[in-house]
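=== Per-residue structure ===
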Amino acid sequence: MKNKIDVRGISQQQALNQLEKALEDQSIKTVEILSSEQDSTSTLINYLSNKGVAVEEVLQTPEGQTIIANISRKQIMTQKSYVVDNDTLGQGNEVIGQKLMNAFFNVSSDYEQVPASIFFVNTGAKLCVEQADTVDALRKLQEKGTDIIVCGTCLDFFEIKDKLAVGRIGTMHDLIAIYHGQEQVISL
């Protein structure tokens, strides 16, 4: 079902309220939003993005802009994957790096839009074992459709294969398939 929302001439908060109601309706698959103000259009696009809704098109019309969005309850970024080669995020202090990596996956798991896959290699494999702070967030991502892959050689090297708590054991073939098959691979 397609829904048309006209937010021209109303406040941004009223526009967001109307959009929120549309997103709650399970029968709506596509929403068309008519907006006259560029600021409102930007706010609505940001709101949709944060909810994991794919904005397919923004059309310029004589009256303003028309946003066409595909509403999906389980949005997978099919052309995007992550490769995680460390158990910390950033360089420098290890303690803050571990906190940042944990925060990254916790926040990522709150979004409806998730990556197609995440490949954990080297010390990144430690993020997928029992007692790791990231396990719950990674399980949430996996439940939303993300393929969690953990380097088997790395698990063997660190002697933690028996402690794997989330994901599946992968090989270099899986990693190469990600690089060949995805439009965008992000290294963390």
